[in-house]
Amino acid sequence: MIRLHHVGVVVEDLMSAISKFCRALGVDEKKIVVHRGQYSTRDGEVEEFEYAFIPSGNGTMIELVTPKSEGPTMRFLRKRGEGLFHLAFEVDDVYSTIEKFKEAGIPFAGENPTGELVSVFFHPKHAHGVLLQVVKKGLFLPDGEINPETLLKT
User: pTM, whole model, 2 decimals?
Assistant: First the structure.
């Protein structure tokens, strides 16, 4: 089962964006948690970022993301400005989804993965200009925090 989990929006000022989205969607801003994360690209570049999830109904979230160090997200923000960054789909099996995407003409970005995957990106050049992400079901808690139980199962 594949379902849209969240829409990623890159922003310059995370707190201002949280306030604006919460007011527009009728969400209590005090309940929104800001998280700090990092990831490594396939080239070994480590990027730090802050993010927050805003509930938007039917279990779908809006993820607001602000880059805090050099990397792909910062380059995206400089080149294109604020706006839609990615669509993230939640799945039971990341590997079979990679195969489905590959069969649809959307190959995995980078080398073939090894080990248990919980999140993977697909380059926008193969998806009509949209960066796609696939996340393992249960990876995120309702407030957007990474679920340690999901990571322990990998």
Answer: 0.88
